[in-house]
Specification:
The structure is a single chain. The chain has helices spanning 18-28, 52-55, 70-78, 90-102, 113-131, 151-162, 187-198, 216-225, 245-251, 254-262, 271-281, 303-316, 351-363, 373-385, 436-441, 458-466, 510-519; strands at 4-10, 34-40, 59-60, 66-67, 87-89, 136-141, 166-174, 177-178, 183-184, 205-210, 233-237, 285-293, 318-326, 339-342, 368-371, 393-394, 404-408, 423-431, 445-452, 454-456, 470-474, 481-485, 492-495. The protein folds into two domains: 4-89 and 124-276, P-loop containing nucleotide triphosphate hydrolases (Rossmann fold); 283-519, 3-Layer(aba) Sandwich (Rossmann fold), CATH 3.40.50.880. It has a nine-stranded mixed β-sheet with strand order 13-12-14-15-23-22-21-18-19, sandwiched between helices. Strands 5-2-6-1-7-10-11 form a seven-stranded parallel β-sheet, sandwiched between helices. The longest helix has 19 residues, at 113-131. It is α/β, with parallel strands linked by helices and 521 residues long. The structure holds glutamine. Glutamine is lined by residues 344-346, 372-373, 396, 451-454.
Length: 521
């Protein structure tokens, strides 16, 4: 049986939502075992070493893989748990080829991009496909056609096709509306497809992103000039929620088109999904949430949190209206918010603003959810203002603090390299009896994803507990504090783990559900 692939590429410009398009295609065919593979052109081995301003949020998987944030879309839409190896980067691919060259594995040959690098790419794709017993491999190539960085992946697709794997190429383009003439313009799409043809790749399906739906005239023109049928040109208009995209594709029978092209049987029902989308679009109530972080200029830095709130909101029929508060700015007014979130983060900048927000939430009985750094700073705030430890801090923010209530994890003390060296991935959390955590999760142990180097300093745990802070979740050996809460507060919880990474539209995370529920009180 030939392997079956769907390859998603992009043209015209980046940022058109290729990840959401790929995830939506995955959703459309959810009764098949689809394995998403993302190929990034950069030379970083993984995005873990990149600032969120560079590339958006770093998504962390169950197995500890630090991967491109598109994996967040794949997991949220497709209800899967992805693996780190499914994110190829040029750093990983070249690293492998060069290390094999050093081992003499090429037997005297000149090692070249073609065939050695492209062979390595195809090998990795096929290994993933076979290992996962996939029915369809969904390859998304990052960037746009014509970028120097991702050329190797386009070439590997061309070869894959020659080698008789069954492939459907879906090209996502942009159709601008020229406002002065009020007309949709198809030329950028035609040019993007001509760049694909230069690489030996004829797209089978063209998905067109546009402000409003694709006009009939544009569809005809694109079909004619880009060598596809009219039914193979799919409209992808701007929408109020990304979760509507699978429904928009289904309405244009993209599922049937893929079924025919890949010679597969599929019959997916999106009724439940459609009901949730309806709740997102027509919520009964709106609540205002302050997200107090320092990467607020780039929304993608906190995308999983935004999405987790939307998921919880869909189940409660609440619209969480998120406002980003830059905590490096002074004098923020928090009085208009129904809830406050302090997300994860690194470094000193903005930390005092976050501590101020936590204090505000604690003293004014405003629902508060702290995530990772948000939990560490909640401890700093409590130590300073309740325990009376003046100048208490995290050693990350102030290495010379007299009271390091947050400090490096013991096994981080000798870590020098920055890449993939944090405490990463899924870990167990033991919940304490008679706590809100136990009440909400209704089980003794949960598993969540982590990404951190520091922890609540064990030396201060007893004093903090005596002062009223409850550590309601720990490691199984009770050594690392992983979840905290305050009694007699509407909702004050903070986790060392990242619940936002495991939230799905159809399976929202409990901490976000309960946080949102509390904002209504
Ligand atoms: N900087 C903190 C740590 O390394 C928090 C990390 C995070 O929020 N992901 O532990």
């Amino acid at each position: 049986m030939p392997r079956k692939w769907i390859v998603v590429t992009g043209g015209v410009l980046s940022g058109l939502g290729k990840g959401v398009v790929s995830a939506s295609i995955g959703k459309l065919l959810y009764d098949k075992k689809i394995i998403p593979i993302k190929c990034d052109g950069y030379l970083n081995v993984d995005p873990g070493t990149m600032n969120p301003f560079e590339h958006g949020e770093v998504f962390v998987l169950e197995d500890g893989g630090e991967v491109d944030m598109d994996f967040g879309h794949y997991e949220r839409f497709m209800n899967i748990s992805a693996k780190g190896d499914w994110n190829l980067t040029s750093g990983k691919v070249f690293g492998k080829v060069i290390s094999e060259e050093r081992q003499g594995k090429f037997l005297g040959k000149t090692v070249q991009i073609i065939p050695h690098v492209t062979d390595e790419i195809k090998k990795q794709w096929r290994e993933i496909y076979d290992k996962e017993k996939a029915e369809i491999g969904l390859i998304e190539i990052g960037g746009t056609v014509g970028d120097i960085e991702n050329t190797i992946y386009f070439e590997a697709v061309r070869q894959l096709r020659l080698e008789c794997d069954e492939i459907v190429i879906i090209h996502l383009t942009y159709v601008p509306l020229l406002s002065c003439v009020g007309e949709q313009k198809t030329k950028p799409t035609q040019q993007a497809v001509s760049l694909m043809l230069q690489k030996g790749l004829q797209p089978d399906i063209i998905i067109c992103r546009s402000k409003t739906g694709l006009e009939e005239k544009s569809r005809e023109k694109i079909a004619l000039f880009c060598n596809v049928k009219k039914t193979e040109v799919i409209s992808n208009p701007d929408i109020s929620t990304v979760y509507e995209l699978p429904l928009i594709f289904k309405a244009q029978q993209l599922d049937l088109l893929l079924k025919e092209k890949l010679k597969i049987k599929t019959n997916t029902d999106l009724t439940d999904w459609s009901n949730l989308v309806d709740n997102i679009k027509h919520p009964k109530k709106t609540v205002k949430i302050a997200m107090c972080g320092k990467y607020t200029a780039l929304r993608d830095a906190y995308i999983s949190i935004t999405e987790a709130l939307i998921h919880a909101g869909a189940h409660l029929s609440i619209k969480p209206e998120l406002e980003y508060i830059e905590t490096s700015d002074k004098d923020v007014d928090l009085s208009k918010y129904d809830g406050i979130i302090v997300p994860g983060g690194f470094g000193k900048r903005g930390s005092e603003g976050k501590i101020y927000a936590i204090k505000y939430a604690r003293e004014n009985n405003v629902p508060f959810l702290g995530l990772c750094l948000g939990m560490q700073l909640a401890v700093v705030e409590y130590a300073r203002n309740v325990l009376g430890l003046k100048g208490a801090n995290s050693s990350e923010m102030d290495p010379n603090t007299k009271y390091p209530v947050v400090c490096l994890l013991p096994d981080q003390l000798n870590v020098k390299d920055k890449g993939a060296t944090m405490r990463l991935g899924a870990q167990k959390i033991k919940l304490k009896k008679n706590t809100k955590a136990m009440e909400f999760f209704n089980t003794e142990k949960i598993t969540k994803r982590f990404r951190h180097r520091l922890e609540i300093n064990p030396k201060y745990v007893e004093d903090l507990t005596n002062a009223g802070l409850i550590f309601s979740g720990t490691t199984v050996d009770e050594k690392i504090m992983q979840l905290l809460e305050l009694p007699n507060h509407k909702f004050f919880m903070a986790s060392q783990f990242h619940p936002e990474l495991t939230s799905k539209l159809e399976e929202p995370e409990i901490l976000f559900l309960e946080f949102l529920r509390a904002t209504l009180k």
